[in-house]
């Protein structure tokens, strides 16, 4: 599950309207952010060249060292949740190392 989806992305754009345009199976890219002030293991999630959130911290702590050693992550959206009845959108993803 991507976290931070109710915030603005690193370009100041709200993530919720971006999620509304995405579909299951859309490809993802992942970018390490070792200088992130909140989490030195931070991994940014990008879809269609737009930052849509981060990998959860408890998962990022295991994946970040792999990325730092040169491993490439591949991923895609498995499900866009919410959006109905005023609920916020969420984004579930599949990651392959």
What about the largest sheet? 6 strands, antiparallel
Write down the overall geometry.
globular
Order of helices and strands: EHEEEHEE
What is the CA-CA span between the terminal residues?
A: 16 Å
Helix coverage percent of residues? 10-25%
Please state the structural category.
alpha+beta
The side-by-side strand order for the widest beta sheet comes to 1-4-3-2-5-6
Number of strands: 6
Please state the CA-atom Rg, rounded to the nearest Å.
13 Å
Average of pLDDT: 96
Low-confidence stretches: none
Number of helices: 2
Summarize the structure.
The chain has 97 residues and is α+β, with helices and mostly antiparallel strands. 18% of the residues lie in helices and 35% in strands. The mean pLDDT is 96.
Structural commentary:
The chain has 97 residues and is α+β, with helices and mostly antiparallel strands. The chain is built from two helices and six strands. It has helices at 15-19, 57-68; strands at 2-3, 27-32, 43-47, 50-55, 74-81, 90-96. It starts with a strand and ends with a strand.
Topology:
Blueprint: E1 2-3, H1 15-19, E2 27-32, E3 43-47, E4 50-55, H2 57-68, E5 74-81, E6 90-96
Antiparallel strand pairs: 1-4, 2-3, 2-5, 3-4, 5-6
């Amino acid at each position: 599950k991507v976290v931070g989806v109710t915030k603005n992305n690193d370009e100041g754009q709200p993530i919720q309207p971006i999620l509304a345009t995405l579909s299951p199976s859309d490809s993802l890219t992942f970018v390490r952010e070792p200088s992130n002030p909140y989490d030195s293991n931070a991994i940014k999630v990008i879809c269609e060249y737009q930052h849509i959130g981060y990998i959860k911290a408890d998962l990022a702590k295991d994946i970040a060292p792999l990325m730092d050693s040169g491993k490439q992550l591949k991923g895609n959206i498995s499900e866009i949740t919410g959006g109905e009845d005023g609920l916020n959108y969420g984004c579930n993803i599949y990651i392959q190392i």
